[in-house]
Design a protein that fits this description.
heterodimer, A: about 325 residues, alpha+beta, Multidrug efflux transporter AcrB transmembrane fold, four-stranded antiparallel sheet, elongated, B: Multidrug efflux transporter AcrB transmembrane fold, Hypothetical Protein, Haloacid Dehalogenase-like Hydrolase, Chain: A, domain 2, Gyrase A, domain 2, 3 domains
Chain lengths: ~325, ~525
C-alpha cells in the first residue's frame, strides 16, 4: 500500500494567523495588479470587434501584415502570432457602420493585394457586435454571482450559515487570485476563462465540503472531549488530507495536460484551472476552515462572557 | 451473497447496452460543434421596426388613395415615427367623410383630433405593432431557411432567439463569405422609373424634384474582393415603386447573350405582376426603368416596347455564382425587414480538424495520467476505478448522443475535467476504506463503512459542481454551454459509475463466500 501520509497530524489551523497574512497579501497583490493595469483585458467576446485567424503558406512578418492592412482603414489592428509562425491572429476594433461581411472582405482583399505575403487561408472569423458584447459582459457578472449564491445557499442549508459564508469568502479569494494571475500574465478574460472560473468555484467548494463533512461526522459520533473547536477542525483537515492532496494532484495533472497540450485555444482556460486548483486547495484550509474556527471562537467567547456576566449578577 | 446483486448487475448491463446502442455508429451519433467541424455561427438581429415603418408607409399610401377616391382633398399625409400617420385635410368641411374612411383602417386608432384645422393622427394599435414585429422575425426566418435550403447546406440550424434575433448555424460550409451574403441580403427587388427631368449632377447639387430620390448604380450581387473603393454612379429615380419582387414566381440563371462570360437572371412574374409589368412598359415606352435591388440600381434599361408575357431579365455583369445566388434570393423572396449580423463565428474546416486533434490529445493525455496514477497508487482497486472511469466516458458520450447535445472544444475540456473530478469520488471512498482498515476493521466491514461514510460527502460535492454546471448551461453562448453540458452529464454519470458501479465491483470481488484477508488498495 502506497501512502502519502500515515496518520498525518500537522498543525494547520494553529498557523492560520500566518495564512491570513499570506491570503490577504495575495488578494492585495491581485487587486493591485488589476488596479495598476486598469482592470482586466477583455476578449473580443466582451468588447465586441472582429478577430480573423489567418494561416500563411510562407512565414510572414508582422510588419508586412500591418502594412497591407494599413490601406483599409479599419482602426488600430492588433496582430499576433498564434501557435506557430505561419499562423496569425488579427484583431480589429468595432468600426461604426461597417458590418462583419464587409470587414472580412476588406481584410481578405488587403492581404491578397499586399506585397509578398503569398497564399493564405482564412481559418476563423469571429465578429461580435456591440450589443452582444454588452450582453455578455452583464451575463458574465450574473453567472459568477449566481455561482456564489448557489454555493452559499447550498452550504448554509447543508451545514450552517458560518460554513456557507466562510466557503464563499474562500471562493472569492480564489476568484480574485485567478483574475490577478490572469492579469499578471497578460492574458485576456474570455468566455472559456469564465467557464474555468465557474469550475474553480465548484472545485474549491468541493474541498471545503469534504472538510466540513468530516468535522460534522466527528462531532456527531462521539463528542470529542477536551479538544477545542480549532483542534477538531484541524483533525478534520488532517483526516481528509491525503484525499485532498490526491484529488488536487489528479485535477492538477489534468489541467496541466490541457495547458501544455490543449493548444492555443484552450491555453487560457487551462491556465485558470491550473492556478485555481492550487489556490482552491489552499483556501479550503486556510480561508474557509480558518474563518469558521475564528468565527466560532468569537461567538462562543461572547456566549461564555455573557454567562459569566449573568453568574456574577 | 449481498442482497440485490443480480438486480444491480442487470441494471449495469442494461445501461451499458443502452449506451452502446445510442453510440452506434459513433460518426453519425455525436454532433460536433462548429468549432470542431468548421462552419458558420451567425446571430442576426431583425430590424423589425423597419417592417413596422414600411407597413405604416403602405397604410399611408392606401389612406391617401382611399380619401381621394371619396373625393376628399388632402393637404398632407406623412408618416410620423414608425407607427403614426399625420393627416391634414385640405378643408375641415370634409371631416365627417374623412372619419368614415379612416374608420376602415382597423389597425390604427385616431388621436389628437383637431377638427377646426382638419388635422388628426393615426396611431397603430400596440397589438398590431407586436403582431407585425413578430411577423417580421417569423417571415424572415422562413425566408432565410428557404434560401439556405436552396443553397444546399446539410443539417443547418435556424432558430429564433428571444424577441427579434435569429440564430443560424451552418456546419461544414466551404465558402463562408458567400453564405453570409446570401443570408444577410434583404433582396428587396423594385422596379422604378428614372426621373430624367434633372441630371444626377443637378440633383446632387440640391435640385431634387419632389417625389424623386438619388440611388446609386453599381454591380449588384457581385462582391468586390480587391478591397478597393467601388465606383458608384448616381441615378435619379422616382420614389414610387411600380412593382416589387413579391410578384415573382420564378428566377433562373441564364447566359447573357450579349456579352461572353457574363450571366443574367431571368424572372417570371405572377399573373398580376405580369399584367402590371405589361401596363407599365406600355405606358412608358422610351423611358428608362431602374431595376433596384436593396436600394442599389442594378441596371436601368430603356423601354423599347411593351413587354408582355410576364418575363423580364436582370443584367448586371454577373458571374455564374453571383447570378445563381441572386436567383436564389429572388425565388426565396425578400426579407420583410433588414437583418444585421450581431455576432459571427466562422471556423474553417482545416482549423476545426486541428481543434479535434488537439482536443483529443488533451483528453487522452489527461485520462492517461489519471488512469496510470490510480493503477499505480491503488493497485486492483485502482483498476476498478479505471474501469468505472471508462464506463463513465461511455455513458457520457451516449447521453450526449441521446439528447442530441453538441460536442464543442470547451465540451472536450469539460470531459477532461470530468475525468479528474470523477476519480475524486473513488479517491474519497478508497481513502476512507484504508482509514477504516487502519482502525482495525475487517476488509468487508471496512468496505461497507468506507462506502457508507463517503456517500454523503460525494453527494454534496457532486451537487455543488452540478449546480455550477447548470448555471453554465443556462448561459446563452454555445461555447460555454458545451462545457456546462459535458460537465453536468459527466458528473451525473460519475455518481453512478464511481459509486454504484464501483461498489458492485467491490461486492463481486470481496463479498463472495470465501474469506477475504486483504484488499488490494
Amino acid at each position: 500500500m502506497i501512502e502519502l501520509f500515515r496518520n498525518p497530524n500537522y498543525d494547520f489551523i494553529g498557523k492560520r494567523k500566518w495564512a491570513y497574512i499570506i491570503s490577504i497579501a495575495f488578494t492585495l497583490i491581485s487587486l493591485g495588479t488589476l488596479a495598476v493595469r486598469g482592470g482586466l483585458r477583455y476578449d473580443l467576446d466582451f468588447t465586441g470587434g472582429t478577430l480573423i485567424q489567418v494561416r500563411f503558406e510562407q512565414v510572414p512578418t508582422v510588419a508586412k501584415i500591418r502594412a497591407s492592412l494599413a490601406t483599409i482603414q479599419l482602426g488600430e489592428s492588433i496582430i499576433q502570432e498564434f501557435g506557430d509562425n505561419r499562423e496569425y491572429i488579427i484583431r480589429l476594433p468595432l468600426v461604426e457602420a461597417v458590418g462583419s461581411e464587409e470587414i472580412s472582405r476588406r481584410v481578405q482583399g488587403a492581404l491578397g493585394a499586399g506585397p509578398s505575403l503569398g497564399k493564405f487561408e482564412i481559418r476563423r472569423v469571429e465578429f461580435v457586435g456591440p450589443q452582444v458584447g454588452r450582453e455578455l459582459q452583464l451575463q458574465a457578472v450574473y453567472l459568477v454571482l449566481a455561482g456564489l449564491v448557489w454555493i452559499a445557499i447550498y452550504l448554509a442549508f447543508r451545514f450552517d450559515l458560518r460554513g456557507g459564508v466562510a466557503a464563499v469568502v474562500a471562493v472569492c479569494h480564489d476568484v480574485i487570485v485567478c483574475l490577478g494571475a490572469l492579469c499578471l500574465t497578460n492574458r485576456e478574460f474570455s468566455l472559456p476563462v469564465l467557464a474555468a472560473l465557474l469550475t474553480i468555484i465548484g472545485y474549491s467548494v468541493n474541498d471545503t465540503i469534504v472538510a466540513y463533512d468530516r468535522l460534522r461526522e466527528n462531532r456527531g459520533r462521539s463528542a470529542p472531549k477536551g479538544r477545542t473547536f480549532a483542534q477538531q477542525m484541524n483533525d478534520a483537515v488532517n483526516q481528509t488530507l491525503s484525499r485532498t492532496i490526491l484529488t488536487s494532484l489528479t485535477t492538477f495533472f489534468s489541467a496541466a495536460v490541457l495547458l501544455f497540450f490543449g493548444g492555443k485555444t484552450l491555453e487560457d482556460f487551462a491556465f485558470v484551472l491550473f492556478v485555481g486548483v492550487i489556490t482552491g486547495t489552499y483556501s479550503t484550509t486556510y480561508v474557509a476552515a480558518a474563518l469558521v474556527v475564528d468565527w466560532t471562537n468569537h461567538v462562543e467567547g461572547r456566549l461564555r462572557r455573557g454567562k459569566k456576566a449573568v453568574a456574577k449578577a | 451473497m449481498p442482497r440485490n446483486l443480480r438486480v444491480r448487475i442487470a441494471l449495469v448491463l442494461v445501461i451499458v447496452a443502452a449506451s452502446v446502442w445510442y453510440l452506434y455508429p459513433p460518426k453519425k451519433t455525436i454532433n460536433l460543434g462548429l468549432d470542431l467541424q468548421g462552419g458558420i455561427h451567425l446571430m442576426l438581429g431583425v430590424e423589425a421596426d423597419k417592417h413596422v415603418a414600411s407597413q405604416t408607409d403602405r397604410a399611408a399610401e392606401d389612406l391617401k388613395s382611399a380619401l381621394e377616391r371619396k373625393g376628399i382633398a388632402v393637404k398632407r399625409i406623412a408618416r410620423d415615427g414608425n407607427t403614426a400617420i399625420q393627416v391634414e385635410l385640405a378643408s375641415p368641411q370634409s371631416w365627417n367623410d374623412a372619419r368614415t374612411v379612416v374608420a376602415e383602417f382597423a389597425t390604427f386608432e385616431r388621436r389628437d383630433d383637431d377638427q377646426a384645422a382638419g388635422r388628426f393622427r393615426l396611431v397603430m394599435t400596440d397589438r398590431y405593432v407586436r403582431q407585425l414585429r413578430d411577423e417580421a422575425v417569423r417571415q424572415g426566418l422562413e425566408t432565410i431557411r428557404n434560401r439556405i435550403d436552396q443553397f444546399g447546406v446539410s443539417e443547418p440550424t435556424i432558430t429564433r432567439q428571444g424577441a427579434d434575433q435569429i440564430l443560424i448555424q451552418l456546419p461544414g460550409v466551404q465558402d463562408p463569405a458567400r453564405a453570409k451574403a446570401l443570408i444577410g441580403k434583404t433582396a428587396l427587388l423594385e422596379f422604378k422609373l428614372l426621373d430624367e427631368r434633372t441630371s444626377p449632377d443637378q440633383a446632387l447639387a440640391g435640385q431634387l424634384p419632389e417625389g424623386s430620390e438619388i440611388l446609386y448604380e453599381r454591380q449588384c450581387g457581385r462582391d468586390k474582393k480587391d478591397g478597393k473603393a467601388e465606383v458608384k454612379k448616381p441615378v435619379v429615380v422616382q420614389k414610387r415603386t411600380l412593382l416589387t419582387g413579391s410578384e415573382l414566381t420564378d428566377a433562373r440563371v441564364a447566359a447573357d447573350p450579349n456579352s461572353m462570360g457574363n450571366w443574367q437572371v431571368s424572372i417570371t412574374f405572377t399573373a398580376t405582376g405580369g399584367r402590371i409589368f405589361g401596363e407599365v412598359t406600355e405606358q412608358n415606352v422610351g423611358r428608362r426603368l431602374a431595376i433596384v435591388l436593396d436600394s442599389t440600381v442594378c441596371s436601368s434599361p430603356r423601354i423599347n416596347e411593351r413587354i408582355p408575357g410576364g418575363h423580364a431579365v436582370i443584367t448586371g455583369q454577373f458571374t455564374a455564382e453571383d447570378a445563381q445566388d441572386l436567383a436564389i434570393v429572388l425565388r426565396a423572396g425578400a426579407l420583410p425587414a433588414p437583418v444585421v449580423i450581431l455576432e459571427e463565428r466562422t471556423v474553417g474546416p482545416s482549423l476545426g480538424a486541428d481543434s479535434i486533434r488537439q482536443g483529443l490529445i488533451a483528453i487522452s493525455g489527461s485520462a492517461l495520467v489519471v488512469f496510470v496514477f490510480m493503477l499505480f497508487y491503488y493497485r486492483l482497486s485502482g483498476l476498478v476505478a479505471d474501469v468505472a472511469l471508462g464506463l463513465n466516458l461511455l455513458i457520457l458520450f451516449a447521453c450526449m448522443a441521446a439528447i442530441n447535445a453538441t460536442l464543442t472544444l470547451p465540451g472536450l475540456a469539460g470531459i477532461a475535467l470530468t475525468i479528474g473530478m470523477a476519480v475524486d469520488t473513488n479517491i474519497l471512498i478508497f481513502e476512507r476504506i484504508r482509514e477504516e482498515m487502519r482502525v482495525g476493521k475487517t476488509p468487508r466491514a471496512a468496505i461497507e463503512a468506507g462506502f457508507r461514510r463517503a456517500l454523503r460527502t460525494i453527494v454534496d460535492t457532486h451537487l455543488t459542481v452540478m449546480g455550477t454546471a447548470v448555471i453554465l448551461l443556462s448561459f446563452g453562448t454555445s461555447s460555454v454551454k458545451g462545457f456546462g453540458v459535458s460537465l453536468f452529464i459527466g458528473l451525473g454519470a460519475s455518481l453512478f459509475t464511481a459509486y454504484f458501479f464501483t461498489r458492485l465491483l467491490f461486492d463481486l470481488l470481496y463479498m463472495g463466500r470465501r474469506k477475504v484477508e486483504t484488499i488490494s488498495i
